[in-house]
Amino acid sequence: MMLSTLMLAASLSACSGGSGNNGNGSGNGNGNNADATASNNAAASNNAAASNNAGSTEEDTSSPEMDFDMGGRTIKVVSWWDMTIGEDNPDNIERKKNLEELEKKHNFKMEFVAVDYGEYQQKVVASLLAGEPLGDIVRLGKNYTIPALVQQDLLWPVDEYTKNTKVFNPKATEFMSYNGRGYAFSEGQGNLITGIFYNRTLLNKLGIKSPQDYVTEDNWNWDTFTQVAKDANKDTNNDGKLDTWGLASAGFMDPALVSNETSLTNGDKQNLDDPKTVEVFNFLSKLATEKVGRPTEGGDWTEPGQFFRQGNTLMYAGAMYEIGGLKTDMKDYDIGFVPFPKGPSATAYHSSEAAFQALTIPKSVENPDQLIYIWEKINDIDSIYDYADQASLESNFTDENDIQNARDAGAGMLVLDSGTFPKFPYYEMIGELTSGNSVSTVIDTYKAQAQAAIDEVYKK
């Protein structure tokens, strides 16, 4: 189970334009970096995404025209992938044209700098602490930025400059906020999409009720999800052993938390004994003790994904950036998508993000208002798309239900903070829960340790 959870956490940490782990080896649900291709594909999806407000009649929130000369300055945009604007779709062609016109008008050049992911956090944080940032606009992960870097006054608050919702995703600034101020902005309108991939071909063969039917009935919840998984655990050749399984892994703490609209932390407080969190712990314990998920065969964190690819496992909890690889490896199977099921305290579907990241401006960089103005005007376009990630979703799914499910899951993206705290007992708790120890015992055992891990970061 712990390996399964590691796998999902690692998968999710590579999404949303290449968002990754905290890089400190602490193992707090942030996993390992996925390959560069996955990160680049996710970035392209975000950069090509249209505004969620395209075609709307909302009030114009764009910034008024500004007149300034940057004196030939080079603006460096730093990320762990090359964010150079391509010409792969009409939206990006318009963005590139805007950039070229802005460079002439305001007398600057924009350079996109890629730093190897494996050393990214160490390098950018060290440069910030030294007062010599690697760039003018720098991508940072929330888990090592909030509160640590803003407590040291190393970043400009930017929320007063990011009012144009046609360009800036308000969630990005909200997620990267501290003491009422937002310290980051988005490079696109797309949100991370996570949920449940399922094998429709296997579903039809087994003759059981589809997850989509439950979604359509507005009855896709933990109970129906568990029932579908159990129904697919079958011995189809009557040899006394299961040969089809309903669930590739039952170790998914983060999706379970957001699906019940809760978290292990609440600001600077532990949240283990919150009633919603207790419901999550009981759910994970039930999945483990009732042996709902496919048992491990001793593989590494990629094992659940490999189980799903074999074609004999119905459901797999994963992230949308994986769909291309799944389709390539499962050409003989029809793959569907539904959101992670709602918990008993939830009001909507959600995606989980354990390692959120966004763009920031170091405090030692001058004129942050001009930099964000330039970014806004680059991306303030009349998109050909009706919604964020339309091109990606429509190229990967032909079923309108799958597309709508993905949009619903992405719209409900929530960010979890347990990865912010290096000593947070994340995997220890999962190990206890999946070993059959009582939920109350687990909470009593780890409450103080969890709070101490939070206090360490908040320096209390």
From TrEMBL:
The keyword Signal applies. Residues 31-56 have a biased composition (Low complexity). Residues 1-16 form the signal peptide. Keywords: Signal. Residues 57-68 have a biased composition (Acidic residues). Gene3D superfamilies: Periplasmic binding protein-like II (3.40.190.10). It comes from the Bacteria. InterPro entries: SBP (IPR006059). Residues 26-69 are annotated as: Disordered. This is Extracellular solute-binding protein. It comes from Paenibacillus catalpae. The lineage of its organism: Bacteria, Bacillati, Bacillota, Bacilli, Bacillales.
